[in-house]
Amino acid sequence: MSLHLQQVRLPLLAFTLEIDATFDFPIVGIFGPSGAGKTSLLELIAGLRWPAAGLVKLDDTILSDASTRRHLPPRVRRIGYVPQDLALFPHLTVRANLEYGHRRPNEEREPFTFPHVIAVMEIESLLERNVTKLSGGEQQRVAFARAILSAPRLLLLDEPMSSLDSRLKQRLVPFLLRIRDEFHIPLIYVTHDAGEITCLCEEVLLMKDGKITGRGLPSELLA
Amino acid sequence: MSDEAWQVVGFTLKTSALSTLLILPFGIAIAWFLARLDWPGKTAVETLVMLPLFVPPVATGLVLLMIFGRHGALGAILHRSFGLEIVFTWRAVVLAGAVMSFPLLVRSAQNGFEGVNRRLEDIARTLGSSEWRVFRTITLPLARRGIVAGAVLAFARAMGEFGATVIVAGMIPRRTTTIALAIYQDVQLGHDSAAWPLLAVSVAIVFAAVYCGQTIARRDRQR
């Protein structure tokens, strides 16, 4: 699977996001300082913003085409998005959060069954709890599980571990690797922490002021 | 308290409840439009909605009389098409209460909608939800405290409505007499002793309603 952004432009307050790149998966990291336009790029891919110019394509599916003003709405894109603040629905239990976007698999052997996902994310004991009463690490795993259960073709993670201390980050890394290995979901992982990119991503793109300034192996670019 | 006084209390409770139910769907819709969309003329609509709070109630009653009277723009149509009489009937009491309490409902519901985190709605869309489902399952439940508080305040306002009601519904015993009108009539006729129990019941009901409204609104602010 590959994601193509062809001469995409999106004016932001401080600068214009200008991206011309192809993302090949399984896990691509986007690394850059705060305010580089990383979140805006993810929102554009998820369909929460529309580009002023350019084309966004996931394999052969056109997600956004500014020239014809055709933009697929987020609900039909099947692109999971876990934002920095996780955005768990505070009025719902963990179970209701998970079931909210649950796309029932066609066959039971497919990986996105409810019991399988909650077992992999180790959240079976949390199902009846209120999401606001969970610890940071638990909330993180629930947010991942909710996104996985919607059976996305691509999953966008926006600094998902930024609010956690280093000990909790270490404990969450295996869960992120399980998303790749158990569910085979391609990931775009955005962060400004070089350590997270190095241990998770095969490829990294560097971003600054809305532009990609470099790409390559994390060990080479972030050493 | 006399049977007639209890009848007045019951009538006032019923018409106030009907007023509140009548404005609830319109109030929620307008509050959402004001909270979420920008369009030319929004400020004018916002001001128009708030007008009944500041225009003398008798003036509002006069306008309602002109519109809903048998020869009024709407009153003539309702009479011709459905045989409905509005003015000087219980319907006029409901109408006056609805118009006078509408701004309180809209303002409170608008605050409720403005307090909903838009990020949650975005994530619901990426999980496959239509706009209607997002509104029904995310926006409305999270704005519910503002809406409930507004409805309670609207009910209390309708309970105490006098100026517009006396113009558009008159003071017809057992047909259009509310607590406020009955108290006025008793005092005018020098029957102060008959007015005191009505006043006590009226204060107790309105105190309880406003207290509930304020408590709900405070909980909403602290959420």
What is the percentage of strand-forming residues of chain B? under 5%
What is the average of the pLDDT values of chain B? 91
| H and E string of chain A | EEEHEEEHEHHHEHEHEEH
Radius of gyration of chain A equals 17 Å
Total of domains of chain B: 1
The biggest beta sheet of chain B reads: none
The major β-sheet of chain A equals: 6 strands, mixed
Q: Which segments of chain B are poorly predicted (pLDDT under 50) over 5 or more consecutive residues?
A: none
In round numbers, the mean pLDDT of chain A is 89
What distance separates the N and C termini of chain A?
28 Å
Helix segment count of chain A?
Answer: 8
**Helix share, percent of chain A:** 25-40%
Shape of chain A: globular
The most extensive interface between chains reads: A-B, 25 and 16 residues
Q: Briefly, what CATH class of the domain at 2-87 and 154-221 in chain A?
A: Alpha Beta
CATH topology of chain B: MetI-like fold
Rg of chain B, please?
20 Å
Assign an overall shape of chain B.
Answer: globular
How does the SSE layout of this entry go?
The complex is a heterodimer of chains A (223) and B (223).
Chain A (H helix, E strand, L loop, with lengths): L1 E10 L4 E9 L2 E5 L6 H9 L6 E6 L2 E5 L4 E2 L2 H4 L1 E4 L11 H7 L13 H7 L15 H14 L4 E5 L7 H18 L3 E5 L2 H7 L2 E6 L2 E6 L1 H4 L2
Parallel strand pairs in A: 3-9, 3-10, 7-8, 8-9
Antiparallel strand pairs in A: 1-2, 1-4, 4-5, 5-6, 10-11
Helix pairs in contact in A: 3-5, 5-6
Chain B lengths: L2 H34 L5 H13 L2 H12 L4 H10 L7 H25 L3 H9 L4 H29 L3 H6 L10 H10 L3 H31 L1
Short description, anyone?
Helix content of chain A is 31%, strand content 28%.
Structure description:
The complex is a heterodimer of chains A (223) and B (223). Chain A is built from eight helices and eleven strands. With 223 residues, chain A is an alpha/beta fold. Chain A has a domain of 154 residues: P-loop containing nucleotide triphosphate hydrolases (Rossmann fold, 3-Layer(aba) Sandwich). In chain A, the strands form two sheets. Chain A has a six-stranded mixed beta sheet with strand order 7-8-9-3-10-11, with helices on both faces. In chain A, helix 6 links the parallel strand 8 and strand 9. The model of chain A has no long low-confidence stretch (mean pLDDT 89). Chain B is mainly alpha-helical. Chain B has a single domain, classed as MetI-like (MetI-like fold, Orthogonal Bundle), CATH 1.10.3720. Chain B is built from ten helices and no strands. The N and C termini of chain B lie far apart (43 Å). Chains A and B meet through helix 2 and strand 7 of A and helix 6 and helix 7 of B.
